[in-house]
Write a structure and sequence with these properties.
Order of helices and strands: HHHEHHEEHH
Distance between the termini: 43 Å
InterPro entries: ArsR-like_HTH, HTH_ArsR_DNA-bd_dom, HTH_MarR-typ, Metal_resp_trans_reg, WH-like_DNA-bd_sf, WH_DNA-bd_sf
CATH class: Mainly Alpha
Number of strands: 3
Protein name: Metalloregulator ArsR/SmtB family transcription factor
Keywords: DNA-binding, Transcription, Transcription regulation
Organism: Amycolatopsis carbonis
GO molecular function, one term: DNA-binding transcription factor activity
Length: 122
Amino acid sequence: MEPDRRLIDPERVAAAVAGLGDRAVIEEWAGRFAVVADPSRLALLVSIHYAREISVTDLAAATGMTDTAVSQALRLLRAHGLVTAHRDGRVVRYRLADATVHELIHRVRPHDTGAAEADPDR
């Protein structure tokens, strides 16, 4: 903060600065939000959320995308830490990476009564 800058409410400025924390974290989340801003990638995240774990082929069927498009999108989602993958025999299954992504999906796609039955975390 500039030392000679006039402040209206210094306590609020101090709280805002403290809330910002590490600027690198802000940059990281800005990148994550940019990735999520694509409707196809967001559809994949929502689908993964409800399925809990799902393969590329099943994601393609659920979203109406090709296997290739799903694979490319998942590579980007993994690179930004939004999903993780694990091998189950010959099949690779994807899941949401952390609780923050899970909460984000709850905000993006609020659960209705029918969806609550499909979401075991509800």
